[in-house]
């Protein structure tokens, strides 16, 4: 067993998991930022927040904007594909 693994104890796990989770959340926030439709200045402001605050900025981003996006025609039902006939 390598020497660096001999010193590893279970209480060291959060020191490894937390940064990795923060980086994954940061990359996810950058991807979501790039694909989300926003006004120009707000898109730039969110980019600055996400880039310079990394994991914490990603948490703030998802808290403020949410994980789901509203579709272009939210609130309306899709048109029926065939005519609806009344039941006799």
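Sequence proposed for the structure above (88 residues):
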């Amino acid at each position: 067993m390598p020497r660096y693994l001999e010193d590893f104890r279970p209480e060291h796990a959060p020191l490894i998991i937390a940064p990795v989770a923060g980086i994954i959340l940061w990359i996810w926030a950058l991807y979501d930022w790039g694909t989300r439709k926003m006004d120009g200045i707000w898109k730039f402001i969110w980019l600055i927040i996400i880039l310079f605050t990394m994991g914490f900025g990603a948490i703030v981003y998802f808290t403020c904007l949410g994980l789901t996006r509203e579709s272009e025609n939210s609130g309306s039902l899709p048109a029926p594909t065939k005519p609806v006939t009344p039941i006799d």
